[in-house]
Amino acid sequence: MSHNTFGHLFRVTTFGESHGPAIGCIVDGCPPNIPLTADHIQAFLDKRRPGQSRFTTQRQEPDQVRIMSGVFEDERTGGPVTTGTPIMLMIENVDQRSKDYADIRDKFRPGHADFTYQAKYGVRDYKGGGRSSARETAARVAAGAIARKIVPGVTIRGALIQMGSHKIDRTNWDWTEVDRNPFFTPDARAAKSFEEYLDGIRKSGSSCGAVIEVTASGVPAGWGAPIYAKLDQELAAAMMSINAVKGVEIGAGFASAALSGEQNADEIRMHHGKPEFLSNHAGGILGGISTGQDIVVRFAVKPTSSILSTRKTVTSGGEETDVMTKGRHDPCVGIRAVPVGEAMMAIVLADQFLRHRGQVG
Prior knowledge:
Blueprint: E1 5-6, E2 11-16, E3 22-28, H1 38-48, E4 65-67, E5 71-72, E6 81-82, E7 87-92, H2 114-121, H3 137-150, E8 155-163, E9 166-167, H4 188-204, E10 210-217, H5 231-240, E11 245-250, H6 261-264, E12 268-271, E13 274-277, E14 285-286, E15 289-290, E16 295-301, E17 311-314, E18 320-323, H7 337-360
Antiparallel strand pairs: 1-2, 2-3, 3-7, 4-7, 5-6, 8-9, 8-10, 10-16, 11-16, 12-13, 14-15, 17-18
Helix pairs in contact: 1-3, 1-7, 3-7, 5-7
């Protein structure tokens, strides 16, 4: 299996399977002399960690990260710092229950990657899905924690803004509310309705999708490049690489198709001697290059494919049958996609910053 690496100057290669002994990543291209400890990374992994509420999978993984290389400490550094060499991060898997998947060993789950993995490689890891499992995203979150340290002054925040057909009221948006509820939503009222809705979904053994919004503030104008290294192009690729994501939009996104040219134009005025945009339909990016405004990305996550309802399928031998997936699964995988989206935003921005610095100084 190729294509396990993302990025150009800041490169992240993930490894491991859902039910293997460990998962992790190798971060290549991190500049030297950046303070880095496992605690810096752990705080972000704890946000994504499963089993923290009844609304996520009850798999109990501590997700304790270990830094295996790329960091050095002596009395002259005043603490562990990066050396500029590859940083290897490892997270052990401790709560696999492979027996839960015995019944689907030869069956393809509808909506899952089971069929396509088998068609491409002639073999698939049916125990937890292997590399197709969202478990792989823990490594991305770990890498994203390092990426954040490369772009000081940039604030990256994510929030769940829709669950199923239920949307937040954007007039109630409060970033401080995101860490007060299990859904990472900025609308306290919506959080209560999400709770009732998802309880019903969970008890029925079904699942639902979600929409996540990720914002980066403090990105200066000038990051990105026209044509084949557009900032929005690489953000779209990053978000689409997340498990179960089926749609991405930047700024006004698909809604911009219904706007007139006058409505969509982000007008500009001078403020304290600098250009200031009066709106942000472009999502902070024009011509593939950052404008200095907030960068705004949204992505849609489909419902979890592993559900308790019986669905029609076929076996690897070509026989028609039915399938029902047992085990521990997220009724809404979009909840834990929030810190993953933040991490992918950070990885793209760190890479674009280093490339920008290399080109223009």
